[in-house]
Amino acid sequence: MHILNYINGTMQAALSGAILDNFEPATGQVYGQIADSDNADVALAFEAAKAAKESWANTPAEEKFKWLNALADAIDADRENFAIAESRDQGKPLWLARNEMIRAAQNFRFFATAAMQFASESHATENKAINYTLRQPIGVVGCISPWNLPLYLFSWKIAPALAAGNTVIAKPSEFTAATAHLLGEACIKIGFPAGVLNIVNGLGPKVGQAMVEHKGIKAISFTGGTATGKHIASIAAPMFKKLSLELGGKNPNIIFEDADIEKALKTTVNTSFLNQGEICLCGSRLMVHESIYEIVKNRIVHEANNLKVGNPKEENTRVGAIVSQQHYDKVLAYIELSKEEGGTILAGGTPVFPEGFESGWFIAPTVIEGLSATCRTNTEEIFGPVITLIPFKDEEEALAIANATEYGLAATLWTENLTRAHRMAANLEFGIVWINCWLLRDLRTPFGGAKSSGVGREGGWEAMRFFTEPKNVCIALS
Ligand code: TXE
């Protein structure tokens, strides 16, 4: 597959002609090329987005609704090809990629209806004045997305940006640009208005950075690592750009002694290892009340040892390949670090070389115990199929350990005690708290993290508000 830029309604190579190799994680081999764009390509995309700005902003909501639904239809109609491309490009199991393609289409449908329903406030000031808020499109906005849930997160940003009336320059991760490319092709097929959505490909520090630095791009919505988010903020903040940052996590998955343990364990397998642990919401710290610690430990170790790691195309594969050589090396380095920090590996801890995929980047689901709650392994994001077990003695200690990292994205807790659940939820320093569930999503809810997990929220009206500029209009009544 040769991945091109989609600019002004056409597929184009990078202006410099430069390309990058694209790797298949399951084989570790190059299987295609991707345009290696730079600031000249961003400038070109900007001219297209700027030219389309007025007309898209003034397109009636019914029309925007129709176009966003048409994008959803295009993904649905070609779901299997999208899923195959996603799985090959990212390393994730094909069955999981299929689910994610359903969600990518849903993102467009959800924000298509938002375009129709979005409204703004009015404030009556006694009998003196009436204020109303205009929420106008920002203009040209930038969306930068990561490699873990490629089309799912790409569409999660683009859809509200378009629904709110902006034109968009979007950059998928250089590791996983295949489905964004297919989306660009789908735009051409359905005659999506030229310049409204533009997709540029290439390296983050080169083309991503050019987007962040571009004076005309007035808002940046970014999902990725905390270090990259910090860097982006340092450039965008002095330019007073609107910024939405969805960054890393080190999420606690807390099981109390009064939990429905079977239910908790069933979900915990996913919380720990779904998508090779490459989900910012994964519960990488499994915290268990000391009275049930041994039971939970034995069960999760058993489950981890029985998850099939290998060929992403096989239906019974539970853990696919790690996205890139560099990320594979990073995850393995963290496993080594955990040993140096005094941890005991109870399951996994090693690379896996599945038959027929010996040169791919696979890591066994790994369970570690015996680490202090404040060591690096327990406070830094690993973002792989690696969890640590941490016992706690009571609610107070559980809360202290859970909150003892710089991250604050998502916490999961398992308890049948209603008052405890609410008490914990109120005191956990996280943007999302799941009680007796995990990754149960309602697209209307605010989504994002506290502390170093980000700034701002996505989802529902939060996203529509982010992608619009509020203007208060005050009319005197006398
Ligand atoms: O992501 P980057 P990386 C975490 C995870 C992972 C770590 C680093 O812990 O190990 O981040 O991953 C673009 N200006 N998450 O380095 O670099 C890049 O091209 C503008 C958590 O691979 O943050 C890509 O499109 N853009 C996470 C996007 O940023 C830049 C998901 C994300 O890549 C840029 C992924 C720059 N200077 C990793 N540099 C989550 N929150 O879900 C890079 N990019």
Describe the structure.
- This protein has helices at 39-57, 61-77, 79-90, 94-117, 150-163, 178-190, 204-213, 226-236, 261-273, 293-306, 325-340, 376-379, 395-402, 418-427, 460-466, and strands at 2-3, 5-7, 10-12, 19-24, 29-35, 122-125, 129-137, 140-144, 167-171, 197-199, 219-223, 242-246, 252-255, 285-289, 344-347, 351-352, 362-363, 366-369, 386-392, 407-408, 410-414, 432-435, 450-451, 454-455, 468-476.
- The chain has 478 residues and is an alpha/beta fold.
- The strands form seven sheets. Strands 15-18-19-14-13-21-22 form a seven-stranded mixed beta sheet, with helices on both faces. It has a six-stranded mixed beta sheet with strand order 10-9-8-11-12-24, sandwiched between helices. Strands 1-5-4 form a three-stranded mixed beta sheet, covered by helices on one side.
- Helix 8 links the parallel strand 11 and strand 12.
- It is globular, with a radius of gyration of 23 Å.
- It starts with a strand and ends with a strand.
- The structure holds ligand TXE.
- Ligand TXE is lined by residues 144-146, 148, 171, 173-174, 204-205, 208-209, 212, 223-225, 228, 231-232, 246-248, 280, 327, 330, 381, 383.
Protein traits:
single chain; 478 residues; alpha/beta; 7-stranded mixed β-sheet; 6-stranded mixed β-sheet; 15 helices; binds ligand TXE
Write the layout of secondary structure elements.
Blueprint: E1 2-3, E2 5-7, E3 10-12, E4 19-24, E5 29-35, H1 39-57, H2 61-77, H3 79-90, H4 94-117, E6 122-125, E7 129-137, E8 140-144, H5 150-163, E9 167-171, H6 178-190, E10 197-199, H7 204-213, E11 219-223, H8 226-236, E12 242-246, E13 252-255, H9 261-273, E14 285-289, H10 293-306, H11 325-340, E15 344-347, E16 351-352, E17 362-363, E18 366-369, H12 376-379, E19 386-392, H13 395-402, E20 407-408, E21 410-414, H14 418-427, E22 432-435, E23 450-451, E24 454-455, H15 460-466, E25 468-476
Parallel strand pairs: 1-5, 8-9, 8-11, 9-10, 11-12, 13-14, 13-21, 14-19, 18-19, 21-22
Antiparallel strand pairs: 2-3, 4-5, 6-7, 7-25, 12-24, 15-18, 16-17, 20-23
